[in-house]
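Could you join me in thinking about how sequence relates to backbone shape in a protein? Label the sequence line and the structure token line clearly, so we can match residues to local backbone shapes. Once you have written the record down, we can walk along the chain together.
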Amino acid sequence: MLATASGGFAAQADQISAQPPVQAAQQTPEQLQQLVAPIALYPDALVAQILAAATYPDQIVEADRWLEQHKDLKGEELGKEVDKQPWDPSVKALVEFPSVLANMDKNLSWTSSLGDAYVNQEQQVMDALQVMRGRAEKAGSLKSTSQEKVSTQGQTIVIEPADPEVVYVPEYDPWLVYGDPIGVWPGWYWYPGLYLEGPGIGFGFGFGVGFFGGFGWGWHHWGYDWHHHDIRFDNRHYESHSRVFVNRDHFNHAGGFRGGAPSFHGSPQHGFAGTHAEGGTHSGAFSGFNHGGAARGFSARGQSSFGGGFHGGGFHGGGGFHGGGHR
């Protein structure tokens, strides 16, 4: 059985590598708002990491499986091992937030749609984030707390950790927290530690980011330049080198793709071949649900993407955990 699985995975990886990057339709402002709803109320730097990493969905899957297999690693030791991996800095950075990484792996169709939108509609994605923050603020859900600081700079709503060394990932129902209910993203699966039933926002554990301060991909290397509508990495515009998605402007007008050479870092033990779709989760990893996500799947996957079990509230990563609260 193992030999059969390994052979099937190798053939699948070869097929993926041979496929051209995916082109998808432009998403409407309403679709983009629905797309960013699950992350719009996260701190700015975390949103930046998520959008950047979403352009590498293959690496998201690999990193989540790798983390599941290395639960014994903590703090700086974990950082050193992550630093050795061939992943993009954005994917490495998400290891600091294992529940966020696992959620992106679990909801891979949504992740792929997010990556495509960032590559092709970056400014519109930034606009959608601000629209949703404005809606949450108007609904009374978004306000400063002891966990995070919410401020307004002109027309821009900025979200930052209250303590720069401790990052809390807010818990909320992305379809209720913005006032008027939003249609649930098709096949969306709520992940433990990120979801709060009912309106409002809560906080669980805080992630101490100091353990990863010495690595070039760590928390403090990421941010937003809302004025220029772009993600910043090391104070420069972040440019994805993924070849999973076509940059339509570059492809159509410059005769090529944005980014570097295609790559696939999977291996049989990462379990890409799961076929169990439960709880309403569609099994096509990049089906996109007509929202602009990549239509060519790495595998048929559902809740089996968890591997051995839940990551929970982030017990692999930050090193220091701080109790949160609800509002």
